[in-house]
Amino acid sequence: MESSAPKEERPRERKRRETLHRIAEQGLKLFLTRGYEATTLDAIAEAAGISRRTFFYYFKSKEEILLAWQDGGFTETLRTTVLEQSTRQSPLNAVKNALLELTIRFQADYKQTRVIERLMCANESLRIRHQAKYVEKEQAVFDALCQMWPQPKRQPALRIVAMISIGALRLAIDNWNRDQGKRPIAIYLKEAFADLKSEI
C-alpha cells in the first residue's frame, strides 16, 4: 500500500468518528431530557446537525446509540487484548489480565454508566439487548482463546473459562454500581477473580 493512502483516509476517518460521537452524545442528552420513548430519530438528527438519512449511515436505531455508549468498542478491544496475552499462563489468567488491562484503560465514569444502565432498563427490548452484550463479550473471549489454544479437545473448557470470566466482570460491575463507583472497577474485578479461584 502506498504511503499516501493512509494520509488521505485519516481526515475522513476522523470526521466519521467525530460525527458518530456527536450523534451518540446528542442522542444521550435527548434521552435524558425527553425520555427514551419520546425521543425521535428526527430530533436526534436535528440536534446533531445531520439529516435523517445520514443518521442511518451511523446507527440503525435509537437502541444502537445506547449500545454504543454501553460498549464503547469494549468487546472488540477485549478480543484483541486477550490475543495479546501470553500462552505461558492459564487461559483464565490470560482473560483476567486482559480484563484488568482494559478496565484500567477505559476508566469508566460512574455517573454516566448509571444513566446508561437506567436507560437500558427502560423497556424489555433494551433489557434483552443489554444482556446480549454480555453474550457477545463471552463469544469474543472464547474466539480469542480458541486461537491461542487451538486444540479441539480444549474447546469445552475454554468456553467455560469465557463464561466464568465474563461472569466475574458482571459481578465486578454490579459491585462497583452498588458502591456508587467509590473504587475503580479494576479492584472489584481482582476481588471477583480471587473469589472465583478460592472456590475452584
Polypeptide structure, described:
By secondary structure, this protein is mainly α. It folds into 2 domains: 4-59, Orthogonal Bundle (Arc Repressor Mutant, subunit A); 68-199, Tetracycline Repressor, domain 2, CATH 1.10.357.10. The protein has 10 helices and no strands. α5 (74-83) packs across α6 and α8 (124-148) crosses α9.
Topology, please?
Blueprint lengths: L3 H31 L6 H8 L3 H7 L3 H10 L2 H10 L7 H16 L3 H11 L3 H25 L6 H24 L6 H15 L1
Helix pairs in contact: 1-2, 1-4, 4-7, 4-8, 5-6, 5-8, 6-9, 6-10, 8-9, 9-10
Considering the chains and any ligands shown, give keywords for the structure.
Tetracycline Repressor, domain 2, Arc Repressor Mutant, subunit A, 200 residues, 2 domains, single chain
As an assembly, this protein is: single chain
Average predicted confidence as pLDDT: 87
How far apart lie the N and C ends? 50 Å
CATH superfamily of the largest domain: Tetracycline Repressor, domain 2
Uncertain parts: 1-9
Helix content: over 70%
* Beta-strand share of residues: under 5%
The gross shape turns out to be globular
H-E order: HHHHHHHHHH
Count up the helices: 10
Provide the CATH top-level class of the largest domain. Mainly Alpha
Cα gyration radius (Å): 19 Å
Structural class: mainly alpha
Instruction: Classify the fold: give the CATH topology of the largest domain.
Output: Tetracycline Repressor, domain 2
> How would a crystallographer describe the biggest sheet?
none
Going by CATH, the architecture of the largest domain would be Orthogonal Bundle
Number of domains: 2
The tally of strands reads: 0
